[in-house]
Design brief:
Layout: H1 2-10, H2 16-26, H3 38-47, E1 53-60, E2 66-72, E3 77-85, E4 88-92, E5 96-98, E6 113-116, H4 119-132, E7 144-147, H5 157-167, E8 180-184, H6 188-195, E9 202-206, H7 212-218, H8 227-241, E10 245-251, H9 259-269, E11 274-280, H10 294-306, E12 311-313, H11 327-338
Parallel strand pairs: 4-7, 7-8, 8-9, 9-10, 10-11, 11-12
Antiparallel strand pairs: 1-2, 2-3, 3-4, 5-6
Bound molecules: S-adenosyl-L-homocysteine (SAH).
């Protein structure tokens, strides 16, 4: 609202136009379709995109999960998912085109990072889906958000924080920080900085290993930050926000899912105000790594539970439509290259 008020004032228009624009944009409307005076509209469109994010294609899974390919104004593509639960609908958004973190199991990082998304492009994914699903600002079809699409949110810190302020703003789509999860591969300085932003969301850290040495095998970022430093940053986040934190642990055959790993993970996390989300690796065709069996996954979960560590094994959703990180964009780009 502040930015819009300034723009409207600079254009010499009445202040109520700012509210009108805010509401129109938050409903996912293109600037050109909002009934404002022509000079204001033309002025805005000479600087800003009319429609920063457009849904290019929608794929619907047998389980109701929807996957979207979004077209950005410069022709880049990002993807997102909408998962339907009893308590509401969770949208997974991307924060960068591609990613430069280089995790060995992830499809988003196959071709590196192309560019950061702006705050408006991150928000635009949600506004476009809310609108396409028949929602509005009162009756929202997107109630929860996870920053777990392509990109490393803390590698695009300023835009992500601005996005979080926009998506939680009153009068907009107004999604509570408590209904938002941000996942990071563990950029320690940004985790600490974020603790002071006053945005009490669910901080999620991709751990995927129990020792630094093993973590370095699949996650290059482990060369920069140690697990101990990550745990310290999590403890600081809890101290500042009172929010417990979550670890993601993808079970990879022959890599991180033996009983000794489960025991070591339990020892690492026992007594901490945290929760572990286990997920069986989603196999990516460009990558060698294999998923563990369901039986092994339950065994791993059992060890954590016996040791008193709060944990759940996540259901896989939308696997028939390329639900995993970056898979859909990778397929789209390769189809486009070969056609
Ligand atoms: N860059 C952020 C957020 C994006 S990924 C991060 O690293 O946390 C969201 C989660 O999916 C992360 O935990 C990531 O490690 C995990 N992930 C990526 N590819 C996966 C795959 N093929 N199977 C299972 N989990 C995967």
């Amino acid at each position: 609202m502040e930015e819009l008020s300034r723009l409207v004032a600079e254009a010499g228009e009445k202040p109520f136009r700012a509210r009108q624009l805010f509401e129109g944009l938050m409903q996912g409307k293109a600037v050109s379709s909002i009934p404002i005076p022509a000079p204001l509209k033309e002025g805005l469109l000479s600087v800003y995109e009319d429609e920063p994010v457009r849904i290019l294609e929608t794929f619907v899974s047998r389980d109701g999960t929807k996957k979207f390919l979004f077209l950005l104004a410069d022709g880049n593509i990002v993807e997102g998912v909408l998962m339907k639960y009893k308590y509401g609908n969770t949208q997974c958004v991307s924060t960068q085109v591609g990613c430069r973190m280089g995790c060995k199991f992830c499809a988003s990082t196959l071709n590196g990072r192309v560019r950061d998304l702006t705050a408006g492009e991150i928000l635009g994914q949600i506004l476009a889906v809310n609108r396409a699903e028949g929602g509005n600002l009162k009756d929202r079809r997107v109630t929860n958000v996870v920053l777990m699409g392509s990109g490393e949110p803390f590698d695009n810190y300023e835009n992500v924080v601005k996005f979080l302020r926009l998506v939680t703003a009153e009068g907009g789509i107004h999604i509570s920080a408590r209904n938002i999860s941000l996942s990071t591969c563990g950029l320690v300085p940004e985790m600490k900085k974020f603790a002071a932003e006053g945005i009490p969301l669910n901080l999620t850290v991709s751990l995927h290993a129990v020792t630094d040495e093993e973590r370095r095998r699949t996650m290059p970022i482990a060369n920069k930050y140690k697990i101990a430093e990550i745990l310290d940053a999590c403890a600081y986040y809890f101290e500042r926000t009172g929010r417990r934190y979550i670890f993601e642990y993808s079970l990879i055959e022959g890599e991180n899912c033996d009983e000794k790993h489960a025991l070591a993970l339990a020892a690492l996390l026992q007594g901490r105000p945290c929760h572990v989300n286990l997920i069986r690796l989603n196999e990516v065709k460009e990558r060698e790594l294999k998923s563990t069996s369901e039986k092994e996954a339950y065994r791993f979960l059992g060890v954590l539970e016996r040791k008193g560590v709060s944990a759940t094994l996540r259901r896989s959703m939308g696997s028939d439509i390329g639900g995993a990180c970056g898979q859909l964009r990778a397929r789209y780009l390769s189809d486009r290259r070969s056609s």
